Every structure is written in C-alpha cells, then in structure tokens.
Amino acid sequence: MGALRRHAVAWITRGEPADARRITLTRRRIYILPTRAGYGFGLILIVMLLGATNYSNSMAFALTFLLGSLGANAMWQTHRNLLRLEVIVEGVAPVFAGQQASLRVALRNPGRQDRPGIRLRTEKQVPRVIDVPAQGHAELDIPLSAPRRGLHPIGRLRVDSQFPLGLFEAWSWPAYTTDLLVYPKPADPAPPPPFGVASGGKGAPVRGEGDEFAGLRKYQAGDTPGRVAWKAVARTGRWMTREFEANRSDDRWLRWDDLGAYGIEQRLSILCRWVLDAHREGAPYGLELPGQVLTPAASEAHRHACLKALALYAIPSRGAA
Amino acid sequence: MKRTPAPPTDLPEIHLRWIALALCVAILPHLLNLPVWIPLLALAMIGWGWWSLRRQRLPRRALRLYLVAAATTGVLLQFHTLFGRDAGIALLVLMLGLKILELRSRRDALLALFLAYFVVAGQFFFTQSIPIALFMLLSVLLITGALIGLAGTARPLPARRRLGIAGSLLLQSIPMMILLFVLFPRLPGPLWAMPKDSTAGLTGLSDEMSPGRISQLIQSNAPAFRATFDEAPPPAGQRYWRGPVLDHYDGRSWHRAVRLGDTTGPVLPETPGIGYSVTLQPSGQRWLLALDRPGEPPPGAVLTSALELVTPRPQHEVRQYRVRSYTDAVFDLELNPWARIRNLRLPDDSAPRARELAHEWMLEHDDPAAVVEQALVYFREHPFHYTLEPPLLTGDPVDAFLFDSRRGFCEHYASSFTVLMRAAGIPARVVTGYLGGEASPLADYLLVRQSDAHAWTEVWLAGRGWVRVDPTAAIAPDRIERGVSAVLGADSGLPAFVRASYGASWLNQLSMRWDVINYHWDAGVLAFGPERQRELLERLGLHRLGWTLIALILMGGLAGLLGLYVLIYRWRNRPRFASDAERLLQRVEALLAEQGYVRRPGETPDALAARAAAGHPPWRETLTRLTGGLQRARYRGDTLDVAATQTLIEELRAKRNPP
User: Fold this and answer.
1) What element of type H or E holds B428?
2) CA of B130 vs chain A CAs: smallest distance (Å)
C-alpha cells in the first residue's frame, strides 16, 4: 500500500522538477481537495437544500446558497494560502544511523498578506504548524529519520494548509535533491583499538622522539615529565603532552583489516566508534579502508572525511555528493 | 452530585469562547418561535458547558445521557411527537446545547458549529422576516469566525482578524448567493409529505365558517396580501376579494361542499377586465385570492366551478401571481339540477322562524329578485347593529340573530341571509374573502389585512346567474366603503389599528412605510419560487436555452465572480515599493534567498549581506558596495544610481554558485 501510494505521488508530481534548496509553490504544484470536515459540510448543504425545496422556503435557500458560496470562497483562499510560497531547505547536519536528523526549512512569503496555518512534514510524520508573516520568513526544523548509513536524498516534503475554514486542504509535494549524510551507527560496546588507547600505559608506543613540535594531545600515563606541556596545564588546568613530528611514524591507524572477525556493517560501526574516540583524544589518526586511505590528521574536517568514507563505503555513488 | 474528572478538552479556551458565543447567537431567535423553555434550557447548558470546560471538567457520561433522555422526553411531552417541524427543530436546539457538554476535540467542535448552521436555517421555517434574515448574517459571521479558529493556525488569531476574514468571506459570498438564488434550478416542493404542524401559526381564511371564525381574523393586523394593479384599482366598494365559497350548511357552520357535475365557467364580457398581481402571505391554505370574478387561473392553480382559485397544496411560502378579473362577468346562466339542490338544502330542524318568514315573502312575491330586496329591507328596517362583539347566541344561531340579538357582523349577516334565501326557494351560498384594501401612500399597491376579512352572499337568479348580495351593506354601508374601522368607534374595545382614528396617525404612516419594505421583500425575495423563476427566465430570454445551458451560465457566473475576487486580491497585493531602493533591495534579497541565504526574522539587510558574504566569498566585494549604496539611499536619502545598482545585481547573479 505504501509503495502504491509512493508510486502514485511520483506519477502525479512527474512534471515538477526537484531542486537543491528552493522551490516556489506555483499553481502547477498545488493540489486541493475537500477535507473530511469539507465533505461533512457538503452533506449538510445537501440536506438543507432538500429541506428548503420541500418547504419552498426562500430564506432556507438563501442560507444554503450563502454557505455554499462561503465554501467556494474558502477553497480559493486555501489555495491562495500556499500559492507563491517559497519553501527553502537551509540544510541538514549529518547524523549517525538510528538518530534523528533535523532539517531546517525556511518558508518565505513574498506576498503582502500573512499566511497562517502552514503545515510542513516529511512523508508519514506529524506535521509542524507555522504562521508565515507577510513579506517575511518563518523557519522551522522538521525531524528526518535516518535508519541506515549512506547518502539519502531528503526527497519530498509535504506542505499543506486548511486555512481559513478547514473545509479544503491544499497541499504540495516539493522535492529536494539535497542529501542527508548518515554515518554508521557507532558500535557500543566496541573492541579496543589495536594500539590500545583505551587500555592505558601497558604496551604504549614510545613517542616524542623527534624535535619538531607538532601539537598537543591529552596526557597519558607513562608520558615523561619533560613532555608535559606545563604552560598549557597551567592555562587550562588539564594535563597535556607535547607531540613531535618524528612520532608520526607511530600514528594511530584505524584499519579495516584489523577487524577480520566481523561482518562489513559491524566493522564500519566499530571503525566509527574508533574514529570518534580517537577524535576525542585529540591525537592524529588515519583510516585505512579497502581501496581508500585517509592520512592521519586531527581536525574536525578530518573527522568528517573519515566518517563520510565509512558512511559511503561500498555504496555506489549516485553522482551527486 | 460528585463528578468524576473527565478527560479535559484539547481545545484552547479562546476557541471555546467563540464556539459558545456562536451557538448562543444561533439559538437566540428561537426564543420567538419555540416554547420558551427549550431555547432557555439550551442556552443554560451552553453556559454550564463553557464554565465546566474552563475548569477542565466535563460532566460525566451518565449525567450527559440522562440529560439527553430528559430533553427528548421534554420535547415529547411538549409536542407529543419527535418528528415534524416544531419538534424536530426543538430537538436540534436542545442537542446543540448538549453538544457543548462533550466538546472534547476539534471534531466535536466542527460538528457543533455545523449543527449551529442548521439551527440558523431552522428559524426560517417559522419566520422569514427581514430582521430575522439580517440576524442570520450575524449568526453566520460568528459561526464562521469560530470555524476559522479551528483551521489549524500555530497561534490563535485575534478576534478582529477572525471577524475580518469571516466578514470578507461573507461579502464575497453574497453576490454568489444572489446568482445561485436566481438561477439555481428550483424544483416545486414538497419532495416528501409535509408535516402537519407546518401550517401552525399561519392565519387565513379556512374552508369553514363557524361562529367567531372571521371575528378572530378581524382582530389581526397581519397583511393577508398585497395587490398591484396595472391601471387604477377599482373603487373601494368594488374591492371584493373572492376566497372559498361555502355552500353546505349544517345548522351551525358553513363548509365547502363536494361539487359534482358543475362545469360552467364565467361568461367574460367584452371589457378588458382588471389586470393585477397579488403577493399572498403564506396562509397554510389552498386559496388564492382574486377580485370577484377571476377569469383565468394563474399557473399552478385551478379555477373551480364556484370560481375559487385553488392550489394543489397548502401555501407555506409567500406567493406571487397575476390574475385578470371581470367585475361584471356573468356565470352559471344555467344552474344544473345538482347544484340547485345543493344550494337550496337546509337541515330539516334548522331556523324554523326564519323559514316561516321566508315562506311569507315567497308567497308575497313571484319574482325572486323582489324576495332578495324584501330581505334587505328587513335588515334595514329592523334595529340590526354591526358589532364585532356580538352576544352569545343560544338556540338556533340564525333565529336567535334574526329575531333576538340582532347584533353581529358580516358572518352573521351572510349566514342568516343565505338561510333566508334558501328557505325562500332561491339558490344561495356564502362567499368568504376580503373586502377593501388600503392604498399605500408610498408605493403602488393595495394592502389587504386579515382585518379586512369578510363574508357575503351569492344568490342565483334566472337569467342573471349568480349575483353578489352583501347584506352587511344594508346595515353598515360604511363597512363596505371605508372598512371596519369606519363603523366601529374608538370605544369598541378593539385593537388600536382597527379604530377609525388610527388611519391618519403617524404610527400608521410609519407602519405603512415599513409595509412597503416588507412588500418588496415578500414580492421580490420570498415569493421567488419555481414559477417566478420561470417568469424571470422568460423575461431574460433564457427560458429557451434549457436547464443544461442555464446551469452552464450559472457555473460561468460563479467562476467569473471567483476570478474577479482573485484578480482583486492580486491587485491589492501587487508588489508596492516606497522607492527604487526598496525594490532593488527586494531583488537582492530574492537572489540571496535563492542561494540559501534567507533573511531571518529580525535580521537586518546588512547582517544578511555579511552572512552571505561570509558563506560565499566571491560575493563579498559586490555585496559590500551594493548594500552600502542601498542603505545610504534608504536611510540617508542619498540619490540612488539605479543603473549602477542594477549592474551590481547582475554581477552578483553572475558570481553565484551554479545551480
């Protein structure tokens, strides 16, 4: 049933181009049908019309016609409430599989009349309601579910409104090519990384043999006092160790091949956890996947690159990224 | 009584306030129509419901069911039925009051408001007067305002905004309503059996004349009908409006008999007759009134052998029709034997003294016309009085009136005169109707009120057919020429409007003015039914098109109106800028928005430009120059170089991200 519905919507909206961020709701994109209340109202009008005819009651006719006209006017006003509204997808931050992403959408109203009661949602979600002021904007975040890793197009949104009388619902399905990047779900619990970060001093590699200062990392048991960045400790109150370039040969490598005992998704999950842990440590780390190597670094961009590599591992590219 | 906390309603208080107000206004006019306890109870329940909802506690289910049962029982006791007009509307009003006690969700609220529209329609089955119609607009405005609140806005709209939207919807709907009212195909009702109580509260002539019937009518100031003449109306003494003809006497009351074998129509004279149209108030009866004697029946009515205009069904609606009457028409030159027998029949034991008297006259004169004259002389020469408050008659009503009390009004005179004629061997019958009519000083019509009700006699004379004889004229000629009020003094104890002094008073002037408005309302709006619609279409030349094309015209008209509204809306909302700077700024903003830099609420154009420049460095320089110039023009009043600004905007467009 769900698939049928999806196909039907796809067929109905086939002439409506998707956009990366901004869609203006034109006449072609807006659909309108009576709501359940609207059908109820129609039924009442029919009963009233029959009553008026039976009793040949002129004023009952007049009231029936007045209410019918009221309904017809409500119809175009509901349609108007969406017409020329601009629906702008402002962006969505990557999330881990199983989390909920939050899509920021701006509604821009170029008209001189405000548009109350605009509802916005993705398929099958509870709509969020917002009133858009005249010649202004309203922003809202709508939740997106992200069950699986990978790059998921956010696809169709549903914008609708029943304002003013609730007898008709006008709606539109603006579709967006913007993707939601979903990282693998971090494994919990995860086996310790092979370089034993989590296991403390025992077997820790000797570091800091070089001369060139490379950066600071969190103090670990076994670091010699000469390595401690005393100035930083004094400043921040946390124990930090200076690191030197020559140590890079001993950088932590997070390797696909170290996890031979696990399946693909589990390996990705564990690697994801390792990347997060390593990033939190602050030390440079590298990631080695089959056919793909990310050289060690410790920046936010590097973290994102690693996680993205994991997210997209073995997923055929769709060209857009 | 202890009340368990029911799940509170999920409607905000502002909605409840609107709904309660709308329902109260919808119920209010029913105070005039229904037994007063019904609307009062409904209003009380709305007050109680609102109070409970505000405290987030609704009466529990058992109590509500008990109330439903009690309300139904009350209606049953009052009307002895649950169906029909009065009981049905009473139930509807009570249920509307009860509905607010279970107003839990939006769905309940919608149902209550739709029901309220129904209750508003219900009041028209009692009265369709102008004030009630205007009140209907108020009710619809408030119900619609309450409905607007339920349409799902993020924040409740302020009252003024709601009324503004509802008001503009209503204003847009009125022209469409008029179009529908005129062109929507009307079917002749009724579609199903009319409940018996649907004629309650209507007044008019009935097909029976028993003592006191007409005097009841005479007490009523209500208009019976209004007539507009093509030319000058006939003189006052000729304004006999023919209604039901009563030819069966049972010793006390007169009825319409079943007339078999009568077929003769009137012999129309060479004169063109008098053409006029009548706007008849709903009477709940089947008569159409026409000047004595009508020629052709209007569409939808038949002319009986006694020259009554009869419709197939009772009239519950104002009705307008055109008739042509011939005051000097002759009919029934030959009286068939059955009709003769019927119009001579008297119950064996009735009016012995009157019969004796008539018998003497019959022996005295050979010519029936002389007997008629003799009877009129009898009325003139004996001390008969015209009064609307006759003493109670004991024994045979005709004998008691003719020989004892001698005080009465038209119905006594017509009845006893007809009995005398029959006893003298002259076929005779009672004709009821109206006599007179007041010319409106402001418009071209004659107003005939219920107080103009009258009864007279028709006798059949060989060679002349049926001849009208009005015995009341013999007693009180002024009644014929100047109406009831001329005959009765100020001390007669009658309602003020019937008294002689009333006619010239300012109050009467005012009431005649109001009557003109009502006349146009009745004739133009309320009388508009299938027949009037056909007439109008004929006058417009549309009747040849057939209903399919007329329906298309109607649809086209409605679509045209909607299109007009859309155009007006677009024109009123066309982009308007205080200056070039505003207009160009709008363009820059649209360009930035296209790239995802949408101005946030409260963000200045400068801040937006800074954000866009930070996010898209190629724009930085152009944007700085652009907004600088625009801002100086807006706030410092510097002249804006429009061409240069446009070039900058083009530059901005060129440097944007490829789509």
Assistant:
1) strand B428-435
2) 10
- For B336-393, what is each residue's pLDDT tens digit? 888 889 999 999 888 899 999 999 998 999 899 999 999 999 998 888 888 877 888 8
Q: DSSP for B490-556?
A: GGG---GGGSGGGTTSHHHHHHHHHHHHHHHIIIIIIT-SHHHHHHHHHHHT-GGGHHHHHHHHHHH
* Residue of B399, B470, B515, B522 marked catalytic: B470
Residue A31 to residue A161: CA distance in whole angstroms: 11
Chain A residues touching B529 at Cβ < 8 A:
56, 58
State how far the Cα of B537 lies from the Cα of B544, in Å rounded to an integer: 9
Q: For B245-263, what is each residue's pLDDT tens digit?
A: 998 998 888 998 887 766 6
Active site residue B24: no
Strand pairing report for B248-249 and B290-291: unpaired
Give the count of beta carbons closer than 10 Å to the beta carbon of residue B307: 23
The closest CB to that of A73, out of B117, B132, B169, belongs to: B169
Q: Please tell me the predicted confidence (pLDDT) of residue B573.
A: 77
For B572, list phi and psi in degrees, rounded to 5: -70, -25
For strands B385-386 and B208-209, give the pairing.
Answer: unpaired
Of B151, B173, B317, the CB nearest to A56: B317
Residues A174/A147, Cβ–Cβ less than 8 Å: no
Q: In what order do the strands lie in the sheet with B287-288?
A: B287-288, B309-310, B302-303
Distance (Å, whole) CA B284 – CA A104:
68
| pLDDT score of A221 more than 80 | no
Nearest to B124 among A59, A90, A119 (CB): A59
Assess whether B454 carries a catalytic annotation: yes
Before A184, cis peptide (omega within 30)? no
Does B410 participate in catalysis according to the annotation? Answer: yes
d(CA B140, CA B114): 10
Q: Residue B341 to residues B355, B422, B456, B495: CA-CA distances in angstroms?
A: 17, 10, 20, 42
Rounded to a whole number of angstroms, the distance from the CA of B534 to the nearest CA of chain A is 15
Would the ipTM clear 0.90, i.e. be above it?
no
Nearest Cα neighbor of A74 from A161, A180, A186, A175 is: A161
With a CB cutoff of 8 Å and minimum separation 6, the contacts of B98 are B45, B64, B67, B68, B71
Domain boundaries, chain A: 17-181, 213-312
| Mode of pairing for the β-strands spanning B266-267 and B330-331 | antiparallel
CA distance B105 to chain A (A): 13
Residue B242 has pLDDT above 50, yes or no: yes
Angle at B59 between CA B58 and CA B64, to 5 degrees: 125
Count the neighbouring beta carbons within 10 Å of the beta carbon of residue B604.
Answer: 11
Separation of alpha carbons B148 and B157, rounded Å: 9
Give residue-wise pLDDT tens across range B267-291: 778 788 899 999 998 888 888 999 9
pTM for the model? 0.76
